[in-house]
Amino acid sequence: MSRPVERTARHGEPGGDLHVTSGPGLPRGLVIPAHELVEQFSRSSGPGGQSVNTTDSKVELRFDVASSVAFSDQQRSRALDRLGPLVVVTASEHRSQHRNRVAARTRLADRVREALAPPPATRVPTKPSRGAKRRRVDSKVRRGQLKALRGRVRDS
């Protein structure tokens, strides 16, 4: 069994800085420096051809949320609450290591974007108005009268 190869991503490679696009809670986006991302490669059990047993195409991407310099204090606390101190993303669905690296980075960016989004606004329950209640009761009465007319016809 081969040992997994561990490398830190360098700028300029597919494992350079990770750009998280803007979204709710991230109006200008976010850049996670490459030195905070650790990629680990190992043999994949996924799809492949003749070289599937010899290539390290599975990618495991690790990101330490607690010690990241990319977040503000508020963003860090929100990310720690929702993601935990360490995020690990794996990708092995492609045959090529490069495509798995891209897939893992995309998944990590999506998870960070979702974690930093503010919670949805709480719904304020409302009561039906007096007119709405009256209209509801009137329609029920009308419906009841209509159904009463469907009975047998009686001689008077």
From TrEMBL:
<feature type="region of interest" description="Disordered">
    <location>
        <begin position="111"/>
        <end position="156"/>
    </location>
</feature>
<keyword id="KW-0378">Hydrolase</keyword>
<dbReference type="Pfam" id="PF00472">
    <property type="entry name" value="RF-1"/>
</dbReference>
<dbReference type="GO" id="GO:0043022">
    <property type="term" value="F:ribosome binding"/>
</dbReference>
<feature type="compositionally biased region" description="Basic and acidic residues">
    <location>
        <begin position="1"/>
        <end position="16"/>
    </location>
</feature>
<dbReference type="GO" id="GO:0004045">
    <property type="term" value="F:peptidyl-tRNA hydrolase activity"/>
</dbReference>
<dbReference type="InterPro" id="IPR000352">
    <property type="entry name" value="Pep_chain_release_fac_I"/>
</dbReference>
<dbReference type="GO" id="GO:0003747">
    <property type="term" value="F:translation release factor activity"/>
</dbReference>
<feature type="region of interest" description="Disordered">
    <location>
        <begin position="1"/>
        <end position="29"/>
    </location>
</feature>
<dbReference type="GO" id="GO:0072344">
    <property type="term" value="P:rescue of stalled ribosome"/>
</dbReference>
<protein>
    <submittedName>
        <fullName>Aminoacyl-tRNA hydrolase</fullName>
        <ecNumber>3.1.1.29</ecNumber>
    </submittedName>
</protein>
<feature type="compositionally biased region" description="Basic residues">
    <location>
        <begin position="130"/>
        <end position="156"/>
    </location>
</feature>
<comment type="similarity">
    <text>Belongs to the prokaryotic/mitochondrial release factor family.</text>
</comment>
<feature type="domain" description="Prokaryotic-type class I peptide chain release factors">
    <location>
        <begin position="43"/>
        <end position="59"/>
    </location>
</feature>
<dbReference type="InterPro" id="IPR045853">
    <property type="entry name" value="Pep_chain_release_fac_I_sf"/>
</dbReference>
